[in-house]
Design goal:
Pfam families: HHH, HhH-GPD, NUDIX_4. Its EC number is 3.2.2.31. The chain is α+β, with helices and mostly antiparallel strands and 413 residues long. The chain has helices at residues 14-31, 36-43, 47-61, 66-79, 83-88, 91-98, 105-120, 129-135, 141-152, 161-170, 180-193, 199-212, 231-238, 332-347, 398-403, 408-412, and strands at 284-296, 302-308, 319-320, 323-326, 357-365, 369-379, 393-396. It has two domains: 7-273, Endonuclease III, domain 1 (Orthogonal Bundle), CATH 1.10.340; 284-403, Nucleoside Triphosphate Pyrophosphohydrolase, CATH 3.90.79.10. The protein has 16 helices and seven strands. Strand 5 and strand 6 (369-379) form a beta hairpin. The chain is globular. It binds iron/sulfur cluster. Iron/sulfur cluster binds at residues 166, 169-170, 213-214, 219, 221, 224, 226-227, 230, 232-233, 271.
Length: 413
Amino acid sequence: APAPPPVRHLFSDPAEVEALRENLLAWYDRCKRDLPWRALAATEPDADRRGYAVWVSEIMLQQTQVATVIDYYNRWMQKWPTLQALAQASLEEVNELWAGLGYYSRGKRLQEAARKVVSELAGRMPRTAEDLQKLLPGVGRYTAGAIASISYGQATGVVDGNVIRVLCRLRCIGADSSSPAVIDHLWDMANVLVDSSRPGDFNQALMELGATVCVPKAPLCGECPVKQHCQAWRRKLFGKPPTVPDVEDCGVGDCPLCPPATEPWDSSLGVTNFPRKAAKKPPRVMRTATCVLQRRGCHGAPEYLIVQRPSSGLLAGLWEFPSLPLAQDLQEEKEREELADHLQACMGQPVAAKGLQFIGEVIHIFSHIHQTYVVYSLHLDGDVTLDPALSPSRWVTEDEFHASAVSTAMKKV
Ligand code: SF4
């Protein structure tokens, strides 16, 4: 069995745990943000609808700011107020509403899971974190814990990015916070800390603290309701970690939770010494030629051709201007020729490279891809239909384009 973690990294004093819960919950009651899914979770008598609302909000909140999510959440719940309504939606409608939130597969998976609840679970949401994770596609350990604690009152902890930061600071955990040893330890800690009488509020309070006070760059330690329990803060004030009863090689030996000996505490960073992450892989660099094909529609207004992306992979099923990934370091002339050949193959009619007008470049950063779109335009006199065997396509006005399931990157284009 692995050695137990050193005491410094634990919450081993029940009185301290109790005090931390009280302070955190009192702060949450005073300062929590009013969010529509919180209001619904607190007042909705139907447990399945509570679970559904929290689930939708949690999936939307992954990697997206609260301020952005509110509008999407409200529109979603208005359109599909229940699991049953979502189960009947088409993927196209889901993609249209999701457009701009990023990570499009999350919306698709949410809808697939809703269909599963309706068709295989008689419309009843699983009630525990274990069952939610086991039975619902796209629901991981975090989302399952959030739904179970907030909607059903299960005393189970959650660990997301905000919680990682807060717990690593509270207990001076400086080893790579994405390593399995640290992640396992943080889950254990979250499960020890969670308040059994108000688990949903406790979990939301811990996340809220990370989102509004214990923020990544300039945490507001002076206003923090749990600063008296925070070892990083004490270390910043007093220059060294508090003494603990029985650990003694922690921080100097090979403790799996302390910062590596090669990167010791840096006093200029203060509490932001924690958490630490292994250096990220640099994003993949991609270059894509894209062409805005334009024609005059029957009412005289311009129309644009959009095509649908494949149903798997990046931006699956979304619509875009006809596009072609390019090899790196191509000359501009060559890029233009390749795009013309691609359009010609799609449209089945000649396209002259010199007829393509270069408009400019648009850079869009996906989480792991640095994408440059090289944008051209082409005005067409007659009608054009793309070979439907290659990909579905349609002509849209500017308004229709914005209402379609197109990515933020294409809107920039
Ligand atoms: Fe975070 Fe500072 Fe509070 Fe510690 S005292 S939990 S570092 S805000």
